[in-house]
Automatic annotation (TrEMBL):
(6R)-10-formyltetrahydrofolate binds at residues 64, 106. It comes from the Bacteria. It comes from Methylobacterium iners. This is Phosphoribosylglycinamide formyltransferase. It is an enzyme of class 2 (transferase). The lineage of its organism: Bacteria, Pseudomonadati, Pseudomonadota, Alphaproteobacteria, Hyphomicrobiales. The keyword Transmembrane helix does not apply. Pathway: Purine metabolism; IMP biosynthesis via de novo pathway; N(2)-formyl-N(1)-(5-phospho-D-ribosyl)glycinamide from N(1)-(5-phospho-D-ribosyl)glycinamide (10-formyl THF route): step 1/1. The record marks 144 as: Raises pKa of active site His. Catalyzes the transfer of a formyl group from 10-formyltetrahydrofolate to 5-phospho-ribosyl-glycinamide (GAR), producing 5-phospho-ribosyl-N-formylglycinamide (FGAR) and tetrahydrofolate. HAMAP family: PurN. Belongs to the GART family.
Length: 203
């Protein structure tokens, strides 16, 4: 499966996906990295790994729709079959998301449906939860609300602050995302309507 990864920053999840996809039997090939921010650190890593990496600066487009159309053209030009959002900090138009229904996934640093949106570790500490974590889900127009593919949980420890919690979860994100992409790219998890259907042998 031909995969594009969309980033906005350092791209630590992109790195985890690129490294996992080096395995000869991995069911996806990372063939493109796009960033909405030209200064995203992840672009250099992707280029060094020999993966075409380009910035499509959202500030260069007058509307959300024209930016999304520019993204769509880049994805179509290289026959992308599946899109992975990894620290991508833009909200898409509903039309763009619906065109990629079942073929666009995202990682969110909380146990959805808890703590949608940003500053999820602050939300978790404020709520006093003892378990927190990360979620990989299919992307739908509603933010952070798509059908769930995989999750990983970590304990919230006394003395945790947002940074210590984020660091503990990031370790899990870098394990969870490659595993979740392999399920979807390998056809073992797929979107049917608003539900994820798994092969019988998937945990
Ligand atoms: C991570 O917490 C990820 O869950 C969220 O953005 C943060 C940074 O991701 N989407 P990355 O290091 O840019 O992949």
């Amino acid at each position: 499966t031909r995969v594009a990864i969309l980033i906005s920053g350092r791209g630590s999840n992109m790195i985890a996906l690129i490294e996992a996809a080096r395995a000869p039997d991995y069911p996806a090939e990372i063939v493109l990295v796009l960033s909405n921010r030209p200064e995203a650190g992840g672009l250099a890593y992707a280029a060094a790994a020999g993966i075409p990496a380009r910035a499509i600066d959202h500030k260069a487009y007058p509307t959300r729709e024209t930016f999304d159309a520019a993204l769509q053209a880049e994805l179509d030009a290289v026959g992308i079959e599946l899109v992975c959002l990894a620290g991508f900090m833009r909200i898409f138009s509903a039309g763009f998301v619906e065109a990629w229904a079942g073929r666009m996934i995202n990682i969110h640093p909380s146990l959805l449906p808890l703590f949608r949106g940003t500053r999820t570790h602050e939300q978790a500490l404020e709520a006093g939860v003892r378990l927190h974590g990360c979620t990989v889900h299919f992307v739908i127009p509603e933010l952070d609300a798509g059908p769930i593919i995989a999750q990983a949980a970590v304990p919230v420890l006394s003395g945790d602050d947002p940074d210590s919690l984020a660091a503990r979860i990031l370790v899990q994100e870098h394990r969870l995302y490659p595993a979740a992409l392999a399920l979807v790219a390998g056809g073992k998890a797929r979107l049917e309507g608003d539900r994820v259907v798994f092969d019988a042998d998937v945990a």
